Amino acid sequence: MNISKTLYDALKKSFEENEFDSNDITLTFSNRPEADYQCNSVFAIAKKMHLNPEEVANKIIEKLEQDIAEVSFARPGFINFKLKNEVLSAYLNEALADERMCLNTLEKPIKVVMDYGGANVAKELHIGHLRSPLIGESLARLYRILGNEVITDTHLGDWGLQMGLTIAQLQDDGYVDGYFEEGKPNKEITLDTLNEAYPKASKRKNVDDAFRVKAETYTKYIQDHKEPYWSIYEKIRNISIDRIKINYGKLNCFFDYWYGESTSAPYVEKVVKMFVDKGLTREHEGALVVDVAREGENIPIEKKNPDDPQLYKNPMPPVYLKKSNGADVYDTTDIATIYQRNIDFYPDKIMYIVDKRQGSHFERCFRAVKTVGISPETQELQFVGFGTLNGTDGKPFKTRSGDTIKLEDIIGLITDSAKTKLKENGIENADKLALDIGVSAMKFGDLSNDPLKDYVFDIDKFASFEGKTGPYIGYTGARINSLIKKAGAKISDIEKNGEINVADENQREIAIAFLKLQESYMTSYKNTSLAPLCNSVYDFASSFAKFYNDTRILTEKDEAKKNSYLAISYFVLKAIKQASSVLAFEIPEKM
Question: For every residue of 470-489, which 3-state class applies, written as one string?
């Protein structure tokens, strides 16, 4: 049963019989106690047809053919629907018995490649790497549960200047002597070694021209697979990926492919040739570029001084295909990646979940691949940008010393906060539980916000077991687990024999909150934001808290009522687990 669709179809038929425009139908959830749904179309029709609103409403109600709700008119111009208890009971029981809980799927599912994570090889993951895997993983799960085929790729940064810089620094520090001189030993390279080497090299390139040139040369050697630079590169890449997988795994973030910029490298020359052959390229200061500006962009601003650099309104820089030394650049590898993905997967859509400051880069790349024909007209290319994660002072989150905080340290901080909360509840030595709670705190705290906006990362607030937080959702689930255990009931028996009987206002609130929760999946999908799902699962959990506090479940003498109470409790647990699975965090057995 699809309750919203049933009401909408009934309205549509009534509108057509009354010769009203069915495009004017609006059916929404009501925030009034006397209604569950409301139709807000009356005023629009009355104005269009010069009729009295109440007359219009009565005409619509008179032709309505449905038996799932009580219908009434509310001044000044609303049609209210109050769902019958027996209808809600039937729907909840149907959802309880269904593995997907009657969650609808898309009429036309698609194949989509999602690019998120974006870790750089030879660099430690830091706080700036948090939002992409959190948002990307949940979007991937949302797309899948609605019926789409999803392919995920972390697209590692493993092909740029940082690789040449790191190898040049390792060579100067004596870590790779054995690769260059036979008989000499190599020092052990660890992630800590790389964490020291790259920052040191990055600073050196700004003051040491000879070192910078060497690093650029080594970068070109890597891209040409020249030895021993290629072997050193592969070792660095493997060391980094092993650590990245561990930290992303802690966040319940997993990928189908651990590709990187290097994966698209074999396609670069072919892609560049496509632009050249179609006459789309030009030379600019020794580099090969493609102009992607449209009319109205790059309008010169009149100079006040002839020696001033030229500035433009609505600037749209060109796409760079090759540097002056012939090395690949980020524009080229991202374009080649789209080409590679279309060869390997031919998706209907490619999504990039990246810092919003990269928006211009991807817009230029998207325009380029559409112009040259690498991406067909029917394929959607979507950039999902996100804002900055700030501290409680409103500035980008950093350590007390002002350094960028490591991702594994932030995981540790919020896990420690969860341990403290658990200890207050008498639970100790529960590292996995604390990690799960910490992850739920981070994920819910992030995903409940508009992804485009900056937000404050408040550990104490996010890790609270009360309020709109991930741990509160987990605590609701843990409370239900405890309730079922105390009742001596088995989940299998509840699933088999439990029958929900919606009989009071608290249970009605749970049912309506569930209807809103199920619709929030599609709202999140359309908005490319998990905030609607987060808000709805919180409201749903809150509706259970009221029922739980007002109802004597375990001491209920009437066996049928008690079984119904346990069934609706398990129903809530099952729905919360479904939502938290999409949000990519676990519901614990206890808290």
Answer: HHHHHHHHHHHHHHHHHCCC
CB 194 within 8 A of CB 159: no
d(CA 302, CA 300): 6
Coil, strand or helix at 24: helix
Q: What does DSSP say about strands 380-386 and 349-355: parallel, antiparallel, or unpaired?
A: parallel
Q: Is the dihedral of CA 397, 400, 401, 406 positive or negative?
A: negative
Q: If we measure between CA atoms, which residue out of 497, 479, 481 comes closest to residue 559?
A: 497
Based on C-alpha coordinates, what's the Rg of the chain? 29
Per the CB < 8 A criterion, the answer to whether 4 and 81 are in contact is no
Enclosing H/E stretch for 385:
strand 380-386
Write phi, then psi, for 69 (nearest 5 degrees): -145, 150
Sequence letter at residue 373: G
Using pLDDT thresholds of 50, 70 and 90, give the confidence band for residue 401: low
Q: How far apart are CA 314 and CA 545, in angstroms?
A: 52
**What is the reported pLDDT for 422?**
87
DSSP string, 423-480: HHTT--S-HHHHHHHHHHHHHHHHHTS-TTS-EE--HHHHT-SSSSSHHHHHHHHHHH
What DSSP character marks residue 267? G
Between the CA atoms of 47, 51, 53 and 58, what dihedral angle is there, to the nearest 10 degrees?
-140
Q: What DSSP assignment string belongs to 32-83?
A: STT-SEEE--HHHHHHHHT--HHHHHHHHHHT---SSEEEEEETTTEEEEEE
| Pairing assessment for the beta strands 319-322 and 349-355 based on DSSP bridges | unpaired
The H-or-E segment that residue 89 falls in is helix 85-97
Which of 45-59, 314-328, 350-364 is least confident?
A: 314-328
What's the one-letter identity of residue 201?
A
Confidence of residue 400 (pLDDT cuts 50, 70, 90): low
Q: Nearest-CA neighbor of 364 among 402, 389, 400, 332?
A: 332
Whether residue 591 has pLDDT greater than 60: yes
Beta-carbon contacts of residue 188 (< 8 Å; ≥ 6 apart): none
Nearest partner of 73 among 84, 83, 60, judged by Cα: 60
Strand order in the sheet with 319-322: 281-284, 287-290, 319-322
Q: Is the pTM of this model over 0.85?
A: yes
Do strands 389-390 and 455-456 pair parallel, antiparallel, or not at all (unpaired)?
parallel
- Cα separation, 419 vs 425, in Å, equals 10
Secondary structure (3-state) at 114: strand
d(CA 1, CA 514): 14
Helix (H, G, I), strand (E, B) or coil at 360: helix
Provide the Cα torsion 225, 228, 229, 232; round to 10°: 110
Give the C-alpha distances (Å, rounded to integers) separating 338 from 160, 191, 258, 365: 18, 30, 15, 9
Rounded distance, CA 258 to CA 82, Å?
Answer: 51
Rounded-to-5 percentages of helix, strand, coil across the chain: 55, 10, 35
